UniProtKB/TrEMBL annotation:
Matching SUPFAM superfamilies: Acyl-CoA N-acyltransferases (Nat)
PANTHER family recorded: BLL6696 PROTEIN (PTHR43610), N-ACETYLTRANSFERASE DOMAIN-CONTAINING PROTEIN (PTHR43610:SF1)
GO MF term set: acyltransferase activity, transferring groups other than amino-acyl groups
Protein name (record): N-acetyltransferase
Biological source species: Cellulomonas biazotea
Superkingdom: Bacteria
Occurrences of domain N-acetyltransferase (ranges): 13-147
Keywords recorded for this protein, A-Z: Transferase
InterPro entries, per the entry: Acyl_CoA_acyltransferase, GNAT_dom
Amino acid sequence: MLHDVTLEGHGVRLVPLDASHADGLAAFVDDRVWAGMSSPLPVGPAAWREEVARAQAAPGRVAFAAVDAATGEVRGSTSFYDWEPRLLRVEIGHTYFAPRWWGTSNNPACKLLMLTHAFETWGCARVAFRADTRNARSVGAITRLGAVPEGVLRSHRLAPDGTRGDSAYFSILPDEWPSVRDGLLARLGARGD
């Protein structure tokens, strides 16, 4: 869905994903970056413009481009999705970053911004995350955020090659948020950001 939410801090800006980000995404997203996604890998700027348009058109999805706050370089993308304002629940996902940002402060900064918005602006009662169980990097990143594992939904995902995979589910609830926030702030402070 189209939105005007912009979040900034710790060296990153989350801005509404739009067609102007397609070239930046096309420059680094490959099979390694796209691993674990349930849609085919977009290849080339035209395919990325279509991917961005699909993200913008998806009901309940608030898609962001993650850009370097100082240079404007496109670092990747992340989204709120399955946003249910009446139920005060949302999921965070559709996340992919350029490999040069893996293992840096980028993901903790993006998730701190998003979780702060979800809990402190929207008043969410639940923020969930899910990842294909075969994607150890994503499962590890979610675990490091401090999200609580809830279980595995078997044969829940359909990969672009037609194989089925399991989804590991995690969540954070309002009473857990202060501890998660403090952990993310400590991770960001330890890096000097």
